[in-house]
Specification:
The complex is a heterodimer. Chain A has eight helices and 13 strands. By secondary structure, chain A is of the alpha/beta class. Chain B has a four-stranded mixed β-sheet with strand order 2-1-4-6, with no helix packed on it. Classes of the chains: A alpha/beta, B alpha/beta. The interface between A and B is medium-sized, with 26 and 20 residues.
């Protein structure tokens, strides 16, 4: 094989790998999500253009402080993610962090995470805590830094570009066996928050642990999420975003799309494989393809949002 | 004479057995006196752990993933324990004490204090 042919073959192989790692685009039109393979979207420039301006980027599970074999440099991979976001042609209006900012809730871990986040060109960031952010004895390190938006309750809502955003906390109480819990008080608050809103308002709900049951033996779900869904069901476009499981899992149910994001730190096994949901050592040089972010764009304002997962490579 | 020798031999065998038992009994006592609980492969081991009142129990995380030890009644709570980190608590009163890992709540364990 000549060098030229080899290089061309290699380039094409790398291109396929990049698209494979980057995942799938989801375009929502009139309440129905349509999956578009990224490789197709990249060829179909018009299709990609229709995805519109990025509304926000979801970053999840940065686990600053983790230093084991699965990724000895989580600050480095978060920095790469931040470079990708800063390099986006259209800057997202917001950043949403779906928790596990730190690994062990230590002040130095939160401080380093904030230093890194300060490099983001997009300065408006909204967060919810993960269970790794609330392991300090007094559960104050997260709230001292990020509690203001929610009056230290952990749940809050805001509006941006006609979209209603709801941040929820499901990591403070657990059902026996391990599923997360929202609790009566928070559920009543959501019902009141949504009351009187037009059903045509696009809703984005974000929380750390999945708001639907992905795998109960590992606690990958929220025990009282059904009550939340009752409040959300009448809306024409509901996007539910979570982290926690360090991999993409999606579900579409009526007008609701559920999506978990990749982490920026280390992968975890797929449900039920191995002794538990611990760090997974990626084979060979595949770590970067297993880390990434999700960007969400307005496709057909105000009724449509599109999700786009992007890996580090 | 023969009978007496046999009796002596039996006595000797008995004494050896007794000595063996004596050296064996304390090792059992050591096992039950253990106040260590390991956190490994997303499980507490052993559970339940039986200790005497006044004992200090030490939990040690052997996983790559952090864990915590949180009493169901709020009596004790560790912070996040990284790999090889430990947490200890002294149990003064007899009773049954349940605990979980707040990061992985399906991990449950019990200390029985006598």
């Amino acid at each position: 094989m000549s060098d030229d042919k080899y290089l061309l073959a290699r380039r094409n192989a790398l291109k396929c790998m990049a698209y494979g790692g980057a995942g799938t685009l989801f375009a929502l039109s009139g309440g129905v999500f349509t999956p578009i393979d990224l490789a197709v979207a990249a060829v179909d420039k018009q299709g990609a253009a229709r995805l519109g301006k990025p509304l926000f980027v979801q970053i999840s599970d940065t686990h600053i402080g983790f230093n084991k074999e699965a990724n000895p440099d989580v600050a480095g991979t978060l920095t790469q993610v931040i470079d990708i976001v800063n390099g986006m042609y259209d800057q997202p209006a917001l950043i949403i962090h779906t928790g596990d900012i730190t690994h062990l809730s230590k002040p130095a871990e939160f401080d380093l995470a904030q230093q890194l986040f300060n490099r983001l060109r997009t300065t408006e960031m909204h967060t919810v805590p993960g269970e790794h952010d609330t392991t300090d004895a007094t559960v104050t390190e997260y709230f001292n830094r990020f509690g203001k938006a929610s009056d230290n309750r952990g749940y809050y809502s805001f509006d941006h570009a006609g979209v209603h955003f709801i941040g929820l906390i499901n990591v403070l109480q657990f059902k026996p066996g391990g599923l997360g819990t929202l609790g009566e008080e928070q559920l009543a608050w959501v019902a009141a928050d949504l009351k009187g809103r037009s059903s045509s308002t696009p809703i984005v709900v974000f929380a750390h642990m999945p708001l639907w049951t992905i795998y109960e033996p590992w606690g990958w779900g929220t025990g009282d999420a059904d009550q939340l869904m009752n409040s959300l069901r009448r809306f024409g476009s509901v996007t539910v975003l979570n982290g926690h499981i360090h991999q993409i899992v999606q579900k579409v149910e009526g007008n609701m799309t559920f999506h978990t994001a990749r982490s920026t730190s280390y992968p975890q096994p797929i449900a039920g494989v191995g002794s538990g949901p611990g760090p997974l050592k990626a084979p060979g040089d595949q770590l970067a393809s297993m880390l990434g972010i999700t960007s969400v764009s307005v496709v057909k304002h105000p009724s449509a949002l599109a999700l786009n997962d992007r890996a580090l490579v | 004479m023969n009978m007496r020798r046999t009796q002596m031999m039996l006595t000797a065998v008995g004494m050896v057995l007794l000595a063996a038992m004596e050296s064996y009994v304390p090792s059992i006592a050591e096992t039950t006196d253990s106040t260590e609980i390991m956190l490994k492969d997303f499980m507490f081991n052993p559970t339940p752990l039986t200790v005497k009142a006044g004992s200090t129990v030490t939990w040690t995380n052997m996983d790559d993933e952090p864990h915590t030890v949180v009493s169901d009644t709020g009596m004790f709570k560790s912070g996040g324990m990284d790999t090889n980190e430990s947490f200890s608590f002294k149990f003064d009163k007899p009773g049954t004490y349940h605990f979980t890992c707040s990061i992985h709540p399906r991990m449950v364990g019990t200390v029985l204090v006598q």
